[in-house]
Structure formats: structure tokens, C-alpha cells
Amino acid sequence: MPVSRLTAVILYVAHVAASAAFYRDSLGAAPLFDYGEADAFQALRLGDIEIHLHAAPAADDQLASTWPAGAAGGVGVALHIHASDLARRGQLIQRAGGRVLQEASLQPWGTIELIAADPDGYRLLLWEGQKGLDIQTW
Fold first, then answer.
1. What is the pLDDT at residue 78?
2. What's the pLDDT band for 21 if we cut at 50, 70, 90?
């Protein structure tokens, strides 16, 4: 039987409060809860997914594939985010402390995509469907 859904992504970050502000100010993530220490842990909601921001020193070896460094067989993670008005979103990302790595551009498969990095370097692939192309989810 398949699992019902992905509920959260855990990101270990250098500064929890700054990362929370980035996701709130650039992507519109809504604050959910913390445990009383704004720079130790915060949870936000982005669409149907929660983003759990943990202070990097608290990284759990059982959960964080990059702690210790080199432990993971993969090469990283990227958040794939459906959004609109990617040119404006790119400006918001930069104002909030992120970097735009690839400006919004039409891809051969019909989506318009922008690639960015959050303040900790996590990759964000923001996409929107081309006008007239009915892509809801993948």
C-alpha cells in the first residue's frame, strides 16, 4: 500500500530565524509553530507541505543525509515549487537574501522555470505552466 502523502521537508540551516524570514518573504510561507527559540527550530507551511527549519548544530545523524559530510550517496536536494510571476519572485528571492542561479526561461517540456538558492544554498526550482498548457502537478 502506498504512503498517503509527503508532509514535511526538514532543512538544517545556519540561522533558523533568517531562513524562516527568507521563505516567508520570498515565497509566502506561513509560520506554523516553533519551540520558543526562534533560532533553534521553526515550522512553516508552503502550500500542502511543511518546511521544518532546524539549527544545523542540532542535525540528527539519522535524518540529515549530509551529516557527517560525505555520508550521503546522493548529491543533494532541490525543492520543486509551483509559483507564478517568476520574474517578480526572483526579485523577492534576491531581496530576502537568496540568489537567482538561472533566470526564468521557457523549457523544452513547456514549463517556465527559475532556479534559485536559499541563504543556506538549498536549491529551489520554481516553475509555472506556459500559457495554454494545463499542467497541475507532476
1. 86
2. very high
The angle at the Cα of 131, spanning 93 to 122, to the nearest 5 degrees, equals: 25
Radius of gyration of the chain (CA): 16
pLDDT in tens, 93-102: 999 999 999 9
Nearest to 44 by CA among 76, 77, 20: 20
Q: 3-state DSSP call for residue 112?
A: strand
Cβ proximity of 44 and 38 under 8 Å: no
The CA-based angle 60-64-68, given to 5 degrees, is 85
> Cell 536559499, residue?
118
At a CB cut-off of 8 Å and minimum separation 6, what does 96 contact? 21, 22, 25, 26
pTM of the model: 0.82
Q: To the nearest whole number, what is the mean pLDDT of the chain?
A: 85
Half-sphere exposure of 119 (CA within 13 A, CB side): 20
Give the DSSP H or E segment for 91. Answer: helix 86-95
